[in-house]
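quick one before i forget lol
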Amino acid sequence: MATAEGGQYNGRITLLVVLSCLMAATGGVLFGYDLGISGGVTSMEPFLKEFFPKVYRKMKEDTKISNYCKFDSQLLTLFTSSLYIAGLIASFFASSLTRAFGRKPSILLGGAAFLAGSALGGAALNIYMLIFGRVLLGVGIGFTNQSVPLYISEMALPRHRGAMNIGFEVGVGFGVLVANLTNFGTEKIKGGWG
């Protein structure tokens, strides 16, 4: 970044810049958590019993079949892939909205969609509520994955841009780790909660 005199901008990293980049990087944590949590949840018996009873019955009846064959369900596939399809489609629209309204509104919209999708998924009474919640989660991920790295790059000083932007990727990895630890810790809970 050049100054009016043609020299290099010699700004410094402030607490505000670091906190802004860290807060924005939580978009990566949300993405990573959702990537990691769905795999563990879809193999938990109480979840399958509640939302995918055919898959649960097949899993219990035929114990000699590989796990890959037990989960052969179009509805289960729709549940899993709805997040990724919605995220892909939302990312196409997110770039135009980000360009028109800025990075912060795009991040806030993604966060609101993620919050609504989480609430709907947590309160789901049937598979359709669950899938619609996953679609909202996908919209949130599509918006945040498009705008968060861009926002972090704009907030960071040119010479620290890579170091700050890697915070998003670290957030994704941390989110996956937390999700897998959550899956591991809740898998064996009795009474329909694990």
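fyi The chain has a mean pLDDT of 86.
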